[in-house]
Amino acid sequence: MSYFSASKTPQKRNWLRAITTTLVAGFMLAPTVAAMATTMAPAPATTTSVTPSIMFGGYEKVRSDDPVITGNTGEDAVLRIENKIGRHLTLDHVYYNFDNKWPNARSAWDTAGGRIPFINWASASNGKDIQWSAIASGAYDPYIDARAVAAKNFGSPIFVAFNHESDNDGGISGTSADYVAAYRHIANRFRLAGATNVKFVLILMAKTYNAFTADQWYASDAVDYVAADGYNYGGPLAVHSQNWRSFHDIFANFYDFSIKVGKPAIVSEFATTEDTNYPTRKADWITAAADQLKLWPNIKGAMWFNSNVRYPWWVDSSVNSTGGYGAVAADPYFGATGP
Cα 53–50–47 angle (5° rounding)? Predict the structure, then answer.
Protein backbone atom coordinates (compact mmCIF):
# COMPACT_ATOMS: atom_id res chain seq x y z
CA MET A 1 0.00 0.00 0.00
CA SER A 2 1.17 3.48 -0.71
CA TYR A 3 1.87 6.07 1.93
CA PHE A 4 4.09 8.92 0.97
CA SER A 5 3.21 11.22 -1.81
CA ALA A 6 1.66 14.63 -1.99
CA SER A 7 -1.63 12.95 -2.74
CA LYS A 8 -1.28 10.27 -0.03
CA THR A 9 -0.62 11.27 3.57
CA PRO A 10 2.14 9.43 5.52
CA GLN A 11 -0.27 7.18 7.48
CA LYS A 12 0.07 4.25 5.20
CA ARG A 13 1.28 3.39 4.21
CA ASN A 14 9.21 -17.16 12.19
CA TRP A 15 8.40 -25.87 15.30
CA LEU A 16 9.69 -28.40 17.21
CA ARG A 17 10.14 -32.04 16.49
CA ALA A 18 10.59 -34.90 19.02
CA ILE A 19 12.39 -38.19 18.46
CA THR A 20 11.35 -41.27 20.46
CA THR A 21 13.28 -44.53 20.49
CA THR A 22 11.92 -47.65 22.18
CA LEU A 23 13.96 -50.72 22.99
CA VAL A 24 12.11 -53.90 23.92
CA ALA A 25 14.06 -57.00 24.99
CA GLY A 26 12.50 -60.43 25.57
CA PHE A 27 14.31 -63.27 27.29
CA MET A 28 12.54 -66.64 27.38
CA LEU A 29 13.61 -69.93 29.09
CA ALA A 30 12.11 -73.42 28.43
CA PRO A 31 12.61 -76.23 31.01
CA THR A 32 14.46 -78.55 28.59
CA VAL A 33 15.98 -76.10 26.15
CA ALA A 34 17.53 -72.78 26.94
CA ALA A 35 16.66 -70.29 24.24
CA MET A 36 16.87 -66.59 24.02
CA ALA A 37 14.73 -64.46 21.79
CA THR A 38 15.38 -60.79 21.62
CA THR A 39 13.04 -58.34 20.03
CA MET A 40 14.57 -55.04 19.05
CA ALA A 41 12.69 -51.87 18.34
CA PRO A 42 12.98 -50.24 14.93
CA ALA A 43 16.02 -48.11 14.25
CA PRO A 44 15.69 -44.52 15.54
CA ALA A 45 13.79 -42.24 13.22
CA THR A 46 15.91 -39.96 11.09
CA THR A 47 15.96 -36.41 12.38
CA THR A 48 14.74 -33.88 9.84
CA SER A 49 16.73 -30.70 10.19
CA VAL A 50 14.91 -27.50 9.35
CA THR A 51 17.08 -24.78 7.87
CA PRO A 52 15.85 -21.30 8.79
CA SER A 53 15.09 -19.80 5.40
CA ILE A 54 12.71 -16.86 5.73
CA MET A 55 13.23 -13.59 7.57
CA PHE A 56 9.98 -13.00 9.46
CA GLY A 57 8.82 -9.45 10.01
CA GLY A 58 6.24 -6.78 9.48
CA TYR A 59 5.04 -3.24 9.61
CA GLU A 60 3.51 -2.45 13.00
CA LYS A 61 1.18 0.52 13.11
CA VAL A 62 0.99 2.44 16.36
CA ARG A 63 -2.19 1.85 18.40
CA SER A 64 -3.61 3.84 21.26
CA ASP A 65 -3.57 0.76 23.52
CA ASP A 66 0.02 -0.24 22.84
CA PRO A 67 1.91 -0.94 26.08
CA VAL A 68 4.31 1.77 27.16
CA ILE A 69 7.64 -0.05 27.37
CA THR A 70 10.34 2.09 25.82
CA GLY A 71 8.22 5.23 25.55
CA ASN A 72 8.79 5.34 21.79
CA THR A 73 5.44 4.65 20.14
CA GLY A 74 6.93 2.92 17.10
CA GLU A 75 9.09 0.65 19.22
CA ASP A 76 6.24 -0.14 21.59
CA ALA A 77 4.05 -1.15 18.64
CA VAL A 78 6.73 -3.66 17.63
CA LEU A 79 7.07 -4.93 21.19
CA ARG A 80 3.30 -5.43 21.40
CA ILE A 81 3.24 -8.00 18.62
CA GLU A 82 6.56 -9.55 19.68
CA ASN A 83 5.17 -10.14 23.18
CA LYS A 84 2.11 -11.82 21.68
CA ILE A 85 4.05 -14.21 19.45
CA GLY A 86 6.97 -14.79 21.83
CA ARG A 87 9.83 -13.83 19.51
CA HIS A 88 11.57 -10.92 17.88
CA LEU A 89 10.70 -9.86 14.38
CA THR A 90 13.66 -10.14 12.03
CA LEU A 91 12.55 -7.36 9.71
CA ASP A 92 11.12 -4.10 11.04
CA HIS A 93 9.39 -2.35 8.15
CA VAL A 94 9.39 1.43 8.57
CA TYR A 95 8.31 4.11 6.08
CA TYR A 96 10.23 7.35 5.51
CA ASN A 97 10.02 10.38 3.25
CA PHE A 98 13.00 11.40 1.14
CA ASP A 99 14.00 14.18 3.53
CA ASN A 100 13.81 12.00 6.68
CA LYS A 101 17.04 10.93 8.36
CA TRP A 102 17.92 7.25 8.62
CA PRO A 103 19.46 5.14 9.97
CA ASN A 104 18.39 6.69 13.24
CA ALA A 105 17.69 5.79 16.88
CA ARG A 106 14.91 3.41 15.80
CA SER A 107 17.35 1.65 13.47
CA ALA A 108 19.91 1.30 16.27
CA TRP A 109 17.18 -0.04 18.60
CA ASP A 110 16.22 -2.59 15.97
CA THR A 111 19.78 -3.80 15.51
CA ALA A 112 20.35 -4.04 19.27
CA GLY A 113 17.17 -6.14 19.49
CA GLY A 114 18.22 -8.57 16.78
CA ARG A 115 16.13 -6.99 14.03
CA ILE A 116 17.12 -5.61 10.64
CA PRO A 117 15.77 -2.19 9.65
CA PHE A 118 13.72 -2.36 6.48
CA ILE A 119 13.67 1.21 5.18
CA ASN A 120 10.86 2.10 2.80
CA TRP A 121 12.12 5.38 1.31
CA ALA A 122 9.55 7.44 -0.59
CA SER A 123 10.28 10.01 -3.28
CA ALA A 124 8.52 12.83 -1.44
CA SER A 125 10.01 15.78 0.40
CA ASN A 126 8.40 18.65 2.30
CA GLY A 127 4.98 17.36 1.33
CA LYS A 128 5.71 17.30 -2.39
CA ASP A 129 6.37 14.47 -4.79
CA ILE A 130 9.87 14.43 -6.26
CA GLN A 131 10.31 13.86 -9.95
CA TRP A 132 12.35 10.71 -10.57
CA SER A 133 14.11 12.41 -13.47
CA ALA A 134 15.39 15.04 -11.02
CA ILE A 135 16.79 12.33 -8.76
CA ALA A 136 18.47 10.67 -11.75
CA SER A 137 19.97 14.01 -12.81
CA GLY A 138 21.79 14.44 -9.48
CA ALA A 139 19.63 17.27 -8.15
CA TYR A 140 18.99 15.36 -4.91
CA ASP A 141 22.50 13.99 -4.40
CA PRO A 142 22.96 15.83 -1.08
CA TYR A 143 20.03 13.84 0.34
CA ILE A 144 21.24 10.58 -1.18
CA ASP A 145 24.88 11.00 -0.20
CA ALA A 146 23.99 11.91 3.39
CA ARG A 147 21.94 8.73 3.76
CA ALA A 148 24.64 6.64 2.05
CA VAL A 149 27.36 7.86 4.41
CA ALA A 150 25.11 7.41 7.45
CA ALA A 151 24.24 3.87 6.31
CA LYS A 152 27.91 3.01 5.81
CA ASN A 153 28.78 4.34 9.26
CA PHE A 154 25.85 2.41 10.76
CA GLY A 155 27.65 -0.75 9.63
CA SER A 156 24.87 -3.28 10.32
CA PRO A 157 22.61 -4.70 7.60
CA ILE A 158 19.84 -2.50 6.22
CA PHE A 159 17.25 -3.17 3.55
CA VAL A 160 16.24 -0.16 1.48
CA ALA A 161 13.26 -0.01 -0.85
CA PHE A 162 13.09 3.12 -2.96
CA ASN A 163 9.54 4.41 -3.40
CA HIS A 164 7.55 1.20 -3.04
CA GLU A 165 4.58 0.66 -5.32
CA SER A 166 5.76 3.19 -7.89
CA ASP A 167 3.58 1.23 -10.30
CA ASN A 168 0.58 2.55 -8.32
CA ASP A 169 1.51 6.24 -8.34
CA GLY A 170 -0.30 7.15 -11.52
CA GLY A 171 2.69 8.81 -13.14
CA ILE A 172 2.89 11.55 -10.50
CA SER A 173 6.69 11.38 -10.36
CA GLY A 174 7.39 10.24 -13.91
CA THR A 175 7.51 7.17 -16.09
CA SER A 176 8.78 3.68 -15.35
CA ALA A 177 11.94 4.57 -17.30
CA ASP A 178 12.41 7.61 -15.04
CA TYR A 179 11.99 5.38 -11.98
CA VAL A 180 14.58 2.87 -13.22
CA ALA A 181 17.05 5.70 -13.90
CA ALA A 182 16.46 7.17 -10.42
CA TYR A 183 16.88 3.76 -8.75
CA ARG A 184 20.14 3.16 -10.60
CA HIS A 185 21.44 6.58 -9.59
CA ILE A 186 20.61 6.02 -5.91
CA ALA A 187 22.16 2.55 -5.80
CA ASN A 188 25.30 3.81 -7.53
CA ARG A 189 25.70 6.69 -5.03
CA PHE A 190 25.46 4.22 -2.12
CA ARG A 191 28.03 1.92 -3.73
CA LEU A 192 30.40 4.81 -4.35
CA ALA A 193 30.08 5.69 -0.66
CA GLY A 194 31.01 2.12 0.29
CA ALA A 195 27.65 1.32 1.93
CA THR A 196 27.97 -2.39 1.19
CA ASN A 197 25.75 -3.24 4.19
CA VAL A 198 22.72 -1.92 2.28
CA LYS A 199 20.57 -4.28 0.21
CA PHE A 200 18.25 -2.62 -2.28
CA VAL A 201 14.73 -3.97 -2.78
CA LEU A 202 12.31 -3.32 -5.62
CA ILE A 203 8.73 -3.36 -4.32
CA LEU A 204 5.86 -3.50 -6.79
CA MET A 205 2.23 -4.41 -6.34
CA ALA A 206 1.40 -8.09 -6.78
CA LYS A 207 -1.08 -7.14 -9.48
CA THR A 208 1.75 -5.72 -11.60
CA TYR A 209 3.47 -9.10 -11.59
CA ASN A 210 0.11 -10.66 -12.36
CA ALA A 211 -0.22 -8.35 -15.35
CA PHE A 212 3.31 -9.29 -16.50
CA THR A 213 4.41 -5.65 -16.64
CA ALA A 214 7.04 -5.71 -13.86
CA ASP A 215 10.00 -5.72 -16.25
CA GLN A 216 9.60 -2.04 -17.08
CA TRP A 217 10.16 -1.12 -13.40
CA TYR A 218 13.12 -3.46 -12.87
CA ALA A 219 16.65 -2.05 -12.70
CA SER A 220 18.57 -5.33 -12.80
CA ASP A 221 21.93 -3.80 -11.92
CA ALA A 222 20.56 -1.73 -9.02
CA VAL A 223 18.34 -4.06 -6.98
CA ASP A 224 19.43 -6.99 -4.82
CA TYR A 225 15.95 -8.30 -4.05
CA VAL A 226 12.55 -8.14 -5.75
CA ALA A 227 9.43 -7.80 -3.63
CA ALA A 228 5.66 -7.60 -3.84
CA ASP A 229 2.78 -6.17 -1.83
CA GLY A 230 -0.44 -8.19 -2.00
CA TYR A 231 -3.68 -8.60 -0.06
CA ASN A 232 -6.74 -10.81 0.17
CA TYR A 233 -9.70 -8.44 0.02
CA GLY A 234 -12.28 -11.23 0.04
CA GLY A 235 -14.98 -12.14 2.53
CA PRO A 236 -17.64 -9.71 3.83
CA LEU A 237 -15.25 -6.78 3.26
CA ALA A 238 -14.69 -7.70 -0.38
CA VAL A 239 -13.92 -4.76 -2.65
CA HIS A 240 -14.30 -4.50 -6.37
CA SER A 241 -16.39 -7.70 -6.26
CA GLN A 242 -13.21 -9.61 -5.45
CA ASN A 243 -13.53 -13.18 -4.23
CA TRP A 244 -11.54 -14.70 -1.37
CA ARG A 245 -8.04 -15.31 -2.77
CA SER A 246 -5.30 -17.61 -1.57
CA PHE A 247 -1.74 -16.51 -0.90
CA HIS A 248 -0.70 -18.64 -3.87
CA ASP A 249 -3.11 -16.91 -6.22
CA ILE A 250 -1.87 -13.49 -5.16
CA PHE A 251 1.88 -14.11 -5.32
CA ALA A 252 2.51 -16.97 -7.80
CA ASN A 253 3.38 -14.72 -10.76
CA PHE A 254 5.63 -12.62 -8.53
CA TYR A 255 7.50 -15.76 -7.49
CA ASP A 256 7.90 -16.79 -11.11
CA PHE A 257 9.31 -13.33 -11.89
CA SER A 258 11.92 -13.65 -9.13
CA ILE A 259 13.04 -16.98 -10.61
CA LYS A 260 13.17 -15.53 -14.10
CA VAL A 261 15.39 -12.58 -13.12
CA GLY A 262 17.49 -14.63 -10.68
CA LYS A 263 16.99 -12.41 -7.64
CA PRO A 264 15.95 -13.46 -4.13
CA ALA A 265 12.42 -12.39 -3.21
CA ILE A 266 10.58 -10.81 -0.30
CA VAL A 267 6.87 -10.57 0.33
CA SER A 268 7.03 -7.00 1.56
CA GLU A 269 3.38 -6.54 2.55
CA PHE A 270 0.71 -9.20 2.91
CA ALA A 271 -2.47 -9.59 4.93
CA THR A 272 -6.06 -10.72 4.87
CA THR A 273 -9.24 -9.54 6.51
CA GLU A 274 -11.42 -11.74 8.72
CA ASP A 275 -14.44 -13.56 7.34
CA THR A 276 -17.14 -13.09 9.97
CA ASN A 277 -19.08 -16.00 8.50
CA TYR A 278 -16.14 -18.39 9.09
CA PRO A 279 -14.28 -17.59 12.35
CA THR A 280 -11.20 -19.71 11.49
CA ARG A 281 -10.88 -18.62 7.87
CA LYS A 282 -8.25 -15.93 8.49
CA ALA A 283 -6.14 -18.28 10.63
CA ASP A 284 -6.45 -20.97 7.96
CA TRP A 285 -5.36 -18.45 5.31
CA ILE A 286 -2.27 -17.59 7.36
CA THR A 287 -1.40 -21.28 7.82
CA ALA A 288 -1.84 -21.94 4.10
CA ALA A 289 0.35 -18.92 3.30
CA ALA A 290 3.14 -20.35 5.48
CA ASP A 291 2.78 -23.75 3.80
CA GLN A 292 3.02 -22.09 0.39
CA LEU A 293 6.09 -20.09 1.37
CA LYS A 294 7.85 -23.35 2.23
CA LEU A 295 7.25 -24.49 -1.33
CA TRP A 296 8.91 -21.34 -2.70
CA PRO A 297 12.57 -21.50 -1.60
CA ASN A 298 13.46 -18.28 -3.40
CA ILE A 299 11.34 -16.29 -0.92
CA LYS A 300 13.72 -15.00 1.75
CA GLY A 301 11.48 -12.66 3.72
CA ALA A 302 7.81 -12.11 4.55
CA MET A 303 6.28 -9.13 6.35
CA TRP A 304 2.69 -8.82 7.56
CA PHE A 305 1.11 -5.39 7.18
CA ASN A 306 -0.24 -4.99 10.70
CA SER A 307 -2.49 -2.01 10.32
CA ASN A 308 -6.01 -0.80 9.74
CA VAL A 309 -5.16 1.40 6.76
CA ARG A 310 -8.21 1.13 4.50
CA TYR A 311 -9.20 -2.24 6.03
CA PRO A 312 -8.64 -4.04 9.37
CA TRP A 313 -5.54 -6.06 8.55
CA TRP A 314 -4.63 -6.53 12.25
CA VAL A 315 -3.04 -9.97 12.61
CA ASP A 316 -4.39 -10.22 16.17
CA SER A 317 -7.96 -9.40 15.15
CA SER A 318 -9.14 -12.66 16.75
CA VAL A 319 -7.86 -15.45 19.00
CA ASN A 320 -7.77 -17.78 16.00
CA SER A 321 -5.81 -15.35 13.83
CA THR A 322 -3.33 -14.58 16.62
CA GLY A 323 -2.81 -18.30 17.19
CA GLY A 324 -2.26 -18.99 13.50
CA TYR A 325 0.25 -16.19 13.20
CA GLY A 326 2.01 -17.26 16.40
CA ALA A 327 2.37 -20.80 15.06
CA VAL A 328 4.07 -19.47 11.94
CA ALA A 329 6.34 -17.30 14.06
CA ALA A 330 7.39 -20.37 16.09
CA ASP A 331 8.23 -22.42 12.99
CA PRO A 332 12.04 -22.61 12.64
CA TYR A 333 11.69 -22.24 8.87
CA PHE A 334 10.78 -18.62 9.54
CA GLY A 335 13.80 -18.10 11.79
CA ALA A 336 16.35 -16.73 9.33
CA THR A 337 18.25 -13.90 10.98
CA GLY A 338 19.76 -12.11 8.01
CA PRO A 339 20.27 -11.96 4.28
Answer: 170
